[in-house]
Structures are given as structure tokens and as C-alpha cells.
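Service request form, structural biology core

Requester: graduate student, group of Dr. S.
Request type: structure prediction, single chain
Budget code: on file
Notes: please return the result as C-alpha cells.

Sequence provided:
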Amino acid sequence: MNTKEQPKEKLIIFDTTLRDGEQSPGASMTKDEKIRIAKALEKMRVDVIEAGFAISSQGDFESVKAIANTVTESRICSLSRAISVDIERAAEALKGANAGRIHTFIATSPIHMKHKLQMAPEQVLAQAVGAVKIARDLIDDVEFSLEDASRSEFEFMCRITEAVIDAGARTINFPDTVGYSDPIEYGAMIKRLMNTVPNADKAIFSVHCHNDLGLAVANSLAAVQNGARQVECTINGLGERAGNASLEELVMAIRTRRDIFPVETRIDPVHIVPTSRLVSSITGFPVQPNKAIVGANAFAHESGIHQDGILKFRETYEIMKAEDVGWSTNKLSLGKLSGRAAFGARLEELGISFDSKEEFNQAFVRFKELADKKREIFDEDLQALVSDVQLGTGADDLTVIDLEVLSKSGQLPHAKIGIRYQDKDHRAEANGDGAVDAIFNAIEILVNSETNLQLYSVNAVTQGTDSQGEVTVRLEKDGRIINGQGADTDILLASAKAYLNALTLMRNPGRLHPQLGGV
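Core staff response, request fulfilled:
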């Protein structure tokens, strides 16, 4: 009996954290933050990184361009609508890429064509083909997406797929744009398309699933079982509305169940948890404790029966090794005796870099301050520290000078705060229903932002009572939603930092970009 495992086909992992993930309300990122995440994805060996939507803003164009010029081991992609100005802008941003891809799309479902595009099917078909031809004249690798494919008519999907493959598209993506499909239906759709489209063998079939019904990962895996060889996903399942298929869940499902999936990825899973934490820190979107793979409880066992089984034989209750995905790998910690060389070397290992020596020096000073408060400093602390430093380095940023809070039983909490703006110091004080409310009220006396507080969230960066607290503040004004972050071992100071960071970003429209649509 031959028990040798059959060779497996390659599954391409296409990460869209920097594009679709950024479309989560409040999850917009700066260019430097995007570069940090892109480097982490490269280290994880992601095949394709969708770096952004180049036409959407000058900031997004610069981000795509910077990532294309920095990352060499992953293919860099820019999204574009199926119109020439979008495609040309994407191509311009990708000029410096070692390997680039233009990802163009148009909606193909009756509801989208009628109500959004106001175009007839034949017009949509002609525009799709024209867009792919324009893109192929500018770049060798073109992907085409049929937006809202899961609600499109099958015969029309076949026609447009055949036509864009003939026009030069190498990858055809069939998004479940609104998370409407279910695994049986979606897998069958992919299989039927591959069996019906005459030139299907000349392109890779891809899927991009949203999680509106909690089925994004299941739908993606069903598509893989039925012939799809690229999955589009995000770190932590970040994305519009309920998010996208989670990269970590997809990769580990395929890795763990090698017996049923005929594919393999080139992902190095040991970088999954560090990258998850980096994305969470930058976007301000905490990872829920019971999140698969990367949640704090993913490998925790409370039940006595479970604990007993784990102690006797790990596989009784664990189907993966925690260390395989990056848990508990940081054995070397830094402390107050660590010097600049050790600090800089660890940041380099984490893929963190600075634009200037001054910024590095600021980070080192902040590290020393933190080391006086904490016995050990871990990777998560460094990531939070660097994010905190980079949040307040501009002349137009609102930054905390000092903070004093009095909170006593039976009395209204009172806060006094000093804020620096454009090299001038401003001070105010106020009462509040709680200590944090008093701080925010004092800030508003100075700023009068007229914003609405939508979210206030606190997460411990590491374990222990001396852990840094990472605070996220979400503000809304006139339909614009911004997340601000702050980190410190003092939660009240972290709260002030987060609120001021959100206000700074709200005053800076360059941080935001219009969401022009997507797959």
C-alpha cells in the first residue's frame, strides 16, 4: 500500500488588509503604518499584497507607491475600477514594484448593474474587456473581479469571464461581496464556472468572501475544495461591515486538515500572531479573546477535564501547536539595562523602521521611560510603544504635556490637563461623571471639536498589572469616523493620548480617503 502523500497544488494567499481592511470605519492608516504591515506580510510570505486603491486619494497613491518600492518578496497589487484613469493611476503607483498587479473590477449582478451602474449587461461586458486590455498594455499581471458575483446571473458570468480571459486577465475573482452565499452554493458555483467557461484553464480562479452571515472562511474553503486557487483575505478578518475571510483561519484550516484540502500555501505561520497584534495596534481594532488562532483564549484551557487531558497528551484538546502560529515565541525580553543596539536590533527583527534618527531617539527615550515602569518589555510592548511615538510627532499634533486627575468616592472626578499644539501650551480643567469623562471634558474646553464619541475601548498589551494599556477612541463628525490610539501603563494618560490622537486625525483630512467601492 502506497501511503506517500500526493503532491498538492499551490494556493495563492492574496491579502487585502491594506485595502479592504482599511475600509472598516475608523481603520484608515498612514503611509508609514501601511509599510510596517506590508513588511510583516512579506515576512509571513504572503503571495500578493493589495496595497491600496491608488486613485482614491493622493495618500493612498503614495502608500501603494512606497510599498511597491519597499517590498520585494511579495507581489504588490493596486485596486482600480474598470475605467482608464483608475488603471493608469494604479500602473503609475506600481512602477517600482519587483512584481506588480492591477486588480480591476466592475459589478455584474442585476441589482448592481441597474441601480448602481445604470448600465446594460452588454455595456458592462464591453467596459470590462476594455479595462483589462488597457491594464495589460501597462502591466503583465492583471486580475479582474466580477463584483457581487454570488448574486450575478450564471450565463452572464460565463460570458464576461471568457471575454476578460481572452483580453489578458490572468486571475478571475468571484466575490461574495455582501456575504450572501453559503458554502454548498458557493462551492458549486465555482466548480460549475470552471467546467463551463471554455478558457478557464488559462486563468486562476479566485474568491473574495465577506462575513455578513459569518460564512466568509467556510465559503472560501468550499471554493478551494471546488477548484479556486487564490483566496483573498485579511488579517484578523478586518474589512467592511462584518469583515472579510480571516487569513489566519484559512491558512491554519488548510495546514491542519491536510487530509481533506488538496492545496498548500507558502505562508510561514509563526508570524501570524505578531502580525495580528501589529494590525490590531495600528487600526485600533482589538482582537476578541475567543477569536480563532489569534485570540487570547485560543489556546487557553479552563475546564479541569480539558486541563487534565492536555497534561496527559496535548492532542486530546489541541489540534494545533500554539508556538506554530507565533504564541509564546518571544523568550528574549528587553529591560532598563538594554542599550540602543539591542533596542534597534529588536525593532529591525519586528520590521519596524523610522524615517529619521530623531524619531528613533524619541522611541528610545520612551522605551527607557517604559522600562522604569515595567520589569520586562516584550514585542507587544515595543509595537505599542512605537505606534504611540509615531502618533504624536507632527507640529500640528495635539499632544499631552501633563495630566492630573482627582477621583474620590462621593465627589465628582476632576481633571487638569496641559496640551501642546503648534509649539504653544494650553491648559484646562473640568469635572466629569468619571475620571475619563473629566479628561475628555477638559480637552473639549480647549478644542471644542463637536464630535460624537462612538467607542471607548481599553486592552492590556501584555499580561500583568504593569502591562501597558492600549486605548482606542472612536469619534464621529459629519459622517466621518476616526479611531485614535494611545498607550501607556497609566490608563488615564493613555485615554488622553487616544482622544487627542483621534482629534488630530479628525482635523487632518489627508488621513482619510473616499471609499470608491470595492469587491
